[in-house]
Structure formats: C-alpha cells, structure tokens
Amino acid sequence: MNTANLNTPLIAISVLTVLVGLIWGIKTVQTNAEQKAAANFAPPPSAVNVFTVEKQNWSRSLSSVGTVRAEEGITVLAEVAGRVENIHFRSGDTVEAGSLLLEQDSGNEFAQLASAKARLRLAESNYERIARLRKQKTVSESQFESAKQELDSAIAEVKDLESSLEKKKIRAPFSGRLGIRKVDLGEDLQVGTPIVALQAHDSLNVNFTIPQRWLSLVQPGLDVHVNMIEIKDTIVSGKINAVGAEVNEITRNIEVQARLENADGALVPGMAVEVRVAIPESREHIVVPSTAVVYAPFGDTVFVVEKNEETGQLHARQQFIKIAQRRGDFVSIEAGLSGGERVASSGAFKLFNGQNVVISDQEETVYSLNPQPNDT
Fold this sequence. Notes:
The chain has 376 residues and is of the alpha+beta class.
C-alpha cells in the first residue's frame, strides 16, 4: 500500500481541525468582548426637571353641579281676554318694576265705565237726598237702606271696571331682563296666554345637591364659588342661604341653595354650573405636580431622583404611589412619599428604573392650585 495515499486525508483533517479551532477562538474572543462592552454600556442620561415633594395645607371643599335660578323669575301672562293694542317692549329689554309692557284693547270697558260712573253719580245724589229726608223722618228706614245699597253697588261696579281696565295694562312686577316676546300686535289673548319671560339677573340663586355625609359640615353662611362648566376662569362667588329639610330617599342627597351676586351678568337662569363649597378647615397634604405621575394599569408611579454616593451620578428610582385627590396642577399622595424627595416633574414618561438622569437647564413650570388657562 502507498503510504503517501494514507497521509493525504490525515493532513486535510488536521488542517481543517486547526481552521475550525482558529475560527472558534476568534468568535469566542469577539463574543467575550461584546458581552464585556454590553456589561459596561450605560445609556446617555436623560434630562428632566425636578420638583421637591412638599407639604401643603389644602382647605377642604365640596364640588357639585348645580342649576342657576333667578331669585325672582316668572312668565308674564294675560290676566284677562282681549286684543293686543300696544306693545311697549322689545325682546331682551331690561325693565324696571312697574314698567308698562303691553296694552289690550279696552274700548268696551271704557264705555261701560262711563255708564257705571253715571249710575254712581245718580246713586250718590239719591242717597244724599234720602239721607236728608231720613233725618227729617219723612222716609222709612227701608228706603234709606235701599238707597245705601244702590250706592254701594254702583261704587263696586266702577271699581270692578277700573280693575279690569288696569289688568289690560300689563306691567313688569319687578325689575329684570325680558326674554323673547311671544305675542304680536293685534293678537287676541285668552286668560293665561304667555306674553314674555321676566328674570331678575342681578341676584341669582344656585341649587345643588350634596351627599348626606356632608350635611354636618354644610350650613348657611359658607362661601361658594361658581363657574360655568365650559369657561373655568369665569367665577362668581356667593354664600349658602338655605339647606333642605329632608334627604332624598333614593339618592341620599340633600338640596342646598346659595345666593349669588351676578352684577356683571355672567350667569343666566337655567345654566348648569360647577359649584365648590369651601369647608372652614384645612388638612396637610403631601403633593407633587400631576405631570410627575406615570399612570399605568398596574399602579401609579413617580420617579424619585437620587444621587449615587459611589459615582456621584443622579439616577431615577421608580416609586409606586397612592393618589388621594387632585387639585389644580397638583395631586396629593396618600402613600409612597413622605415629603422632601425630589421627583422628575417633566420627562418622567421616558424614564426607566435605575436610569441615569441630569437636571434640565430649562425653566421649571410654575404650578398652581387654581390655574387660570389663557385662550390664545
């Protein structure tokens, strides 16, 4: 057998083994280097604004939704039947108490009044004559009583017609603003026909309900603040003037009424408004800006910014919290923070636990319990 033919496969296998070992060694070195680089890699620090968790005294308050009612508000109605002869107002006018609004045709009543006054004069003359004769005892007592009855009847008839004529002059019973006119010139009105709504806008009431558990704290004299639901910065103040006498058996709520001063006319009767009742006591709350909270289904968290004592680098530590309530730009924390910690107030949504951070050089947002947004 040829020895050269036997050595050739052995040499090829040896070379291949050396090549595989070399490649494996190179890959091992590369993998170790990558793992070491990954272990030493740190993402660049994230820039955040920080807020020092503080304690604030919040006055207690109760919020509700109420309905604005005019302290005086009616729909002016026709008191007697008759045709509209004159209209002395326009829709939306502001009128004073006693202002003439509308006149109905009263030609027949004037004619009847003239006739009634003529009968009255005759009855007065007849009564005076009978009274003189009675003193002379030339007429009987029954004749005197009959003359007196005729005089009283004539007086009553005149007063009745004068009253009917006055009812055909429809006047504003109090000062206020008129609504939309509901009648036209020449229209025949029946008793009770609506003419126009009249609402006193200067002094309004707001009616709202509170849960029965607040009954012991809500009483007449407490301050209330009211704003339109659509426009938060339009606020009208007032005071509670009445608390209902019974609790609703279904809702377990009780009705409350507050009187408002509406000098600038910002509110209109019938409007739905937000009502906040100021309770005369306060509580201390641990607060952070609402922008610092990361909301999630598994729990709300904030990122506490702490300093690593070994490296001196700031890092973010994710902390679970329990929110008690919200007010303005702040939330009060019931559990998870004790006050004095620094939390990321902006940029928290992009952080993860343990991430390095730096404090941003951007100006910190000014937070308020009563923010007033500007429409631009």
